[in-house]
Structures are given as C-alpha cells and as structure tokens.
Hints:
The complex is a heterodimer of chains A (about 170) and B (about 290).
Chain A: E1 3-5, E2 17-23, E3 26-32, H1 38-45, E4 64-67, E5 70-73, E6 86-88, H2 101-108, H3 118-131, H4 137-143, H5 154-168
Parallel strand pairs in A: 2-6
Antiparallel strand pairs in A: 2-3, 4-5, 4-6
Chain B: E1 7-10, H1 14-23, E2 27-30, H2 36-41, E3 49-52, E4 62-65, E5 68-72, H3 77-82, H4 84-89, H5 91-97, H6 103-108, H7 111-117, H8 123-130, E6 134-139, E7 142-147, E8 152-154, E9 157-158, E10 165-172, E11 178-185, E12 195-203, E13 209-217, E14 224-225, H9 227-233, H10 240-252, H11 264-290
Parallel strand pairs in B: 1-3, 2-3
Antiparallel strand pairs in B: 4-5, 5-10, 6-7, 6-10, 8-9, 11-12, 12-13, 13-14
Helix pairs in contact in B: 5-8, 9-10, 10-11
Amino acid sequence: MSDHVNGAAEGTVANKVPVTITVNGRTHRADCEPRTTLADFLREDLGYTGVHLGCEHGVCGACTVQLDGSTARSCCMLAVQADGSEVTTVEGLAEDGQLHPLQEAFWNRHGLQCGFCTPGMLMTACELLADNPDPSAEEIREGISGNLCRCTGYQFIVESIQEAAPKMRPAT
Amino acid sequence: MKAAAFDYHRATSVDDAIQQLGAADDAKVLAGGQSLVPLLAMRLARPTVLVDLNRLADLAYVRRENGELAIGALTRHRTVETAELVRRDVPLLADALAHVGHVTIRNRGTIGGSIAHGDPAAELPAVAVALDATFRLRGPGGERSVAAGDFFFGYLMTALEPDELLTEIRWPVLPQGTGCAVEELTRRNGDFALVAVFAALTMGADGVCTQARISVAGAAAAPLRADNAEQALIGSRVSAADAGAAADRLAAATDPPNDIHAPADYRREMAAVLGRRAIQRAWAQANRTNAGE
C-alpha cells in the first residue's frame, strides 16, 4: 500500500495532512501542510510557544525538543514526519509545579538573561546529563556548542548545568 | 524562511521509494533532513515531491558481513558513532562522526544522507574515500555497487541517478595494528570543515608502515584521496621527517576553494599542518596498539 499525500501546485493552498503526536504526555491530532515544520506545528497549531524559533535552518538550536527520547531540532523536521511520535518540549520539564533540577539551577545561577535560547539549552542539557552524568566544564561547552546564546551568557549556563548534574545523577 | 509547497510521500518499501522517485520530475529523498530541510526553508531546493524514507526500518542496521561492516543507509549518525562494532572494526568512521555537526544533529542525520548529499567539506564522503567503502545503489533496473572513489564528481554531484537510492555502505574492516586520527579545522565547533584530514596507518611489528589511507575534506570540489602521501609513507618508519614530507605532498595535491570562509592558500597551508598532525597521531596510536596498550 502506498501512502501518498497530495500537496499542491505552486501558488495554491496545499491539501492538509492529518498528524497525531503526543506532546508532554498529551495526544494531539491536527491537520497541516506537508511543508510545515515540526517547530511551526508545535508553536502555531498546538500552542507550545516554549519552542523558540531563531534561525529556522538548524544553526541556533533554540527550537530543540526531545523526539522519542532524543533531542532533535524541530525546525529541521517536518511535522508530518513526527506523526505517531512522542515529543517533549520545555513545557514538559516541570512536574506538578516543581521546577526540573536544570530549570532550578538556571534560575539559581542566572543561566538565563533574555531567555530566548533557554528552552533549547535545557533540552540539550537534559540529554547531555543523561549521556554523561558528571561532565567537565569543557564537555559541557562542547555539549551545548550547537545552541547559540545571543546574550553570550555561556559562563553562567555552564555553571548552571554543573550545578544541576549531581541532582540529576541516579542515587547509588 | 518557509519552504515552498511540495507533495509528500511516505515510502513503504525501497521499491516504492524508487517508483516514486521515477514518477516525478523533481523528486527529492528525505532521510535525516538535516541538510535538506534547511535547504527547503531557504528555498535553495524546491522539489515537487519529497519521498520520505524514515519508516523504512530495514534500512537501519550495522552488521559484520564477509569481513566487511555493512551499514544501512538510514542508520543515524549517532547510532553508528556509538556502535561497538564500528569502534572496533572501523574506528576512523567513529572518530570522524564525532565531528559531524552536534549530537542533536547526529541523532537525526543518516549515514546514507551524508554520502548522497556529497558535500566536499563533509566528513563522511571523505572517510568513505579514504577507506575504499563501497556504496550499494538500487534503481528501477536493479542493483549496482560503486566504489567511493568513483562516486563523488564535484560539489554536491555524485554518481547517484535521480531515480536511484543509496541503500547500504560497506566498509572494509581495518587490520590489526592500525591507528586512526582525524584533524579538522572549523571556525566554530560543529561547522563544516575549512579543511579536515582523515588518516588510518597500519604499522607492522617491525615499526614499518604497511598500509596508509588518507583523505582530505574541504580541499577540492570532491573529497580528495591523498594517494601520493600514502605512497610516501608505506615502507617508511613514519619519522617526523617522513610525516612532514607526506603532508607536504598531500597539501600540494589540494585544489581548495577560495571563498568568504577562507582563502585557498590558507586552506592549503592548513592541509599540510593538519596532515602532519593526523599522520603522527595515527602512527602513535598504531604503535600503542602494537605494544598491546
């Protein structure tokens, strides 16, 4: 069976395609054009405005989300590709009104200035600490090198991630 | 920064994908999308149809077959980078993957996508050329194999026909006593290389080099195999002078681009510096392996 979705000729409105995705544990179904990126779908159609869009071409990292357990740049993916997937956005980090340890540390150590890069930084740092629970400052810098902070406040971001690391390590 | 409209087809099998590619005038394959989706957003690519391979789970694998490592085209960079089999049998590939973009990009990007895209400054085409990898391509007429050395023609140009699909990359397993090194120069971490050198040297127990595989990215319109440098090293003991002479030969063979990112002369000079470092590091690692460390 072939599964062909018709878009549209130039200048016309494309046929919309149905997409079902689970975001932060809640399942959504909405229709979108094939050309809609996952980032635009999350922001514009589903209202997850914690997904920030900086460059829209895979350079700044502000739109980073977790897709089926690993980070992805939601501007470098089509929404239709995420059909059937589970997505976590920055809105999904806090639980029961309790900030996630990384959010707590960013707050405590002034890891955010304007806040634009923060959602992407948090999602990237979550994966970084899951892969490497005790990173050096250098490893953190390399780990967040795909996320640009337009305030250039990297020093405090590194310190924030360092502060969160022991709190996120599984108890031994 | 929004893509122009296109049709979307989610391929249900390799044959289905090939049929769809042949049916449209300007169809494009969507694999990891880490190069293609930005090109769509900037409207540098305006295909009529996207053929999405991402549900073809049988194109994602890493396995040992007939003394080679076979990697399915849809295998994600990160999966290959962290695979024990790759670290053991083709460590130069794992080393090179660590330089591809960032982890977030490598979570999505695919081995086949990077090869088929054919960027001369990218890591994977250059490693494939250094290691004599073989690409399996499938089209409406059947299957064919193309050696990496015959695949890349020029900037983003490859031997892949518009209705063909790259399905598998086969990597020769590196022999015992091989050391590997990647030396890459970028302006920012994760950028495409201004110049990068990939080296795998095999040293005999007597301290003489028996095999050398070296390539350069960012040094010409297609990834460059530095066979003149390899010939200079094979049979030598890879002294500092040998490494320097081989690196000078490597740099002389480059024809680097002269662009906003770096002048050609600078790239050529850096090719010599990085070449020497890569050769010396690969040599030292091979010796450590031979010493049983």
